[in-house]
Amino acid sequence: MRYISIHRLNDYVGQIITLNGWVHTLRDQKQMQFIILRNPTGMVQASLEKQRNPALAEVVSTLTRESAVRLTGHVAQNPDVRLGGVEIQLAELHIENRAKSPLPIEPFGKDLPGLEPRLDWRHLDLRRPENRLLFQVQTTVESAMRDFWQREGFIEIHTPKIMGSASESGAELFELPYFETIAYLAQSPQFYKQMAMAAGLERVFEIGPVFRANPSFTSRHDTEFTSVDVEFSWIESHVDLMDFEEQWLRHTIFAVRQAHGEAIAEHFGSEVTVPDLPFPRITMEEALVRLRERGYTPPPQKQGDLCPHGERLLGENILDDLGHEFVFLVDYPVSVRPFYHMRYPDNPTVTKSFDLLWKGLELTTGAQREHRPDVLAVQAKEKGVRLKPIQYYLDFFKYGCPPHGGFGFGLTRMLMILLGFKNVREVTYLYRGPRRLYP
Amino acid sequence: MRYISIHRLNDYVGQIITLNGWVHTLRDQKQMQFIILRNPTGMVQASLEKQRNPALAEVVSTLTRESAVRLTGHVAQNPDVRLGGVEIQLAELHIENRAKSPLPIEPFGKDLPGLEPRLDWRHLDLRRPENRLLFQVQTTVESAMRDFWQREGFIEIHTPKIMGSASESGAELFELPYFETIAYLAQSPQFYKQMAMAAGLERVFEIGPVFRANPSFTSRHDTEFTSVDVEFSWIESHVDLMDFEEQWLRHTIFAVRQAHGEAIAEHFGSEVTVPDLPFPRITMEEALVRLRERGYTPPPQKQGDLCPHGERLLGENILDDLGHEFVFLVDYPVSVRPFYHMRYPDNPTVTKSFDLLWKGLELTTGAQREHRPDVLAVQAKEKGVRLKPIQYYLDFFKYGCPPHGGFGFGLTRMLMILLGFKNVREVTYLYRGPRRLYP
Q: Is the interface score ipTM higher than 0.85?
């Protein structure tokens, strides 16, 4: 089933071979016909001198662009051909699926249609080689992350996406009729990955969907995305999480560079830089000092936090000062963190938490969790969280839950930063938004 | 952070070490105190002669079963101790999280409570070592499957779980309000993994949740489970799928045996048998002949298919006759297969499809798909499927979709068969059913 790689056709000169692929272009001239065949391994020209096989020529002339075909022919050197100096002299052609003509969108070339028609015809949009590369990179990213986890003894879990009550806040929650009652779609696996700690699984990870009923149409929002989540026990503090995360990310980025560095440079014009360890770490307080020195004051509604603009400035500042693309921003004030983030015993207005910025964009959020049930309940009440709906969660901490913490992020976010995409819709297999349920 | 394995404590005799874990049992005697500490690496006894450290003895006496503790002490040989002949002479104890007493359920011992209370307190139920092993096996299974896929050039996809219309049939569908309209939860990634074929991704896999609004309470049903899905292009027929699947499963089972064979024998009393290749393959027709010879006639409502009882009998028959735990059952009649299964050109009442039985239980379902849009539309109409809601799906086949096929199954199903569990609720991290939304 595995077919011959077009890159290696030179090894087959003089032989008869069969190739599968799509008709990238067709030129039907008076005497000659030329098909450019495209498949994941590259592009190659197949040619036919019409009078040598008029019956076949007739079939070829019925071809349309993007038809799926299986063709057989003689591999011949032809220095006039740009694609590797070889071509196929066509002997047989089987049209597996003839594309209707014209195509509903033009998926190739410099003048691509707008994003909406491309999303309408996502299966054609995905045929561009850079989109294939995008999902190859995603595959490598996930694989490298899991390899690292597994080497470190992590267990893979699949937490339920249907919940009896909201996980974090009541906002942006999808609600659905569920037999005699009502259920909610998980906004994150937060509570359930913490349950794994209470269950003694000690180190877990999950890559799975989460749902946000967010009505915004920005380039960073979607209603469903793939969340990457990690949680582990017996930590001393959030510092252990950062120590882990930076090694894990370095391993992942290294794997991407090894597997796709050249292709990324070719298709996305960017270099994959494997980061040095350790990543710089600065407190939120220090970050604000650095930014004020550069004339930036955070907007009042973002007290104690950074807006995307501030994050970008800080990213630049760290790159200039320390030559690093990453920076851990630690010790966020309680006001901007959820109730379950642990606070410093000697400074209870500050949480043992961090964000990781990459190229000035927020990649992950992490924290040590509060595992003492009484403290947790007090913190929840302070934040206005009703205890009754989360009673099941508070129960996790009553019968011997070890100290623990973790972090999480959206997989698309990582791909956007890594490859320089500006819109989450482009890096999602099938984007979902308030007005986008198809295909 | 990685702590010392209890299995290797003999290497630490004479040293002071720190261990994390749970108080499995506590014996507080007149002169001596004994803690059995449990963690993922095993169990060990920690002892304290009270008069040597009365302050510490007082802390120990406040301990409760299942509390999470960090203890430090001297490793000493003690031939009287059953647990490896070593014990810890307690010097320090830090109670990270004191368990309330009594425990709401008893998670250990021979007389476990019923399933419902155990599911109510799943985080305690999961503390039994065999449950930890279950999720370690799951982790190994997924890892081995992905390794094989990746070696074969597969791309990992994450298809949307929120859909604009039903994927296969209107039955058992969760519906939810979605901004100005209504959406549905995916019952399978079927249509979207086929889209990847139309997109030219050629070989894809996904492990992710699917949802079924099934009101039944049987031991085999749940409303949410993890589906394992594979799809690939340019196949000649469903035979290519079976050739792939049996190698892939053999690789996976081999990995489980390597990593956990001994532990599975110890905890589940069963041996993991790595299957020989190829797996037996018999047509549905032949299966019915075999079963009739054994006095079995399929119930009339199951015409052309097997009921679970028939599958069990056939599994036994194949094991007796051919000595194999697996059997591919091929060529199901059109009547029992969905509209998108391809039919034989010379026998259009039979589909190019298969089920794989393992130990007499259905594991996977697979088929070559119909990729010709006109034929597909006719088959859908014949099955009473309305074309309008699936128009987006039919569109996948209009612009050059290669021949393709795939298979899928529930991950819990595999674990149940592999480890001999009888109830899906036991092998799911957190089971969801019509009346089960918590924890």
A: yes
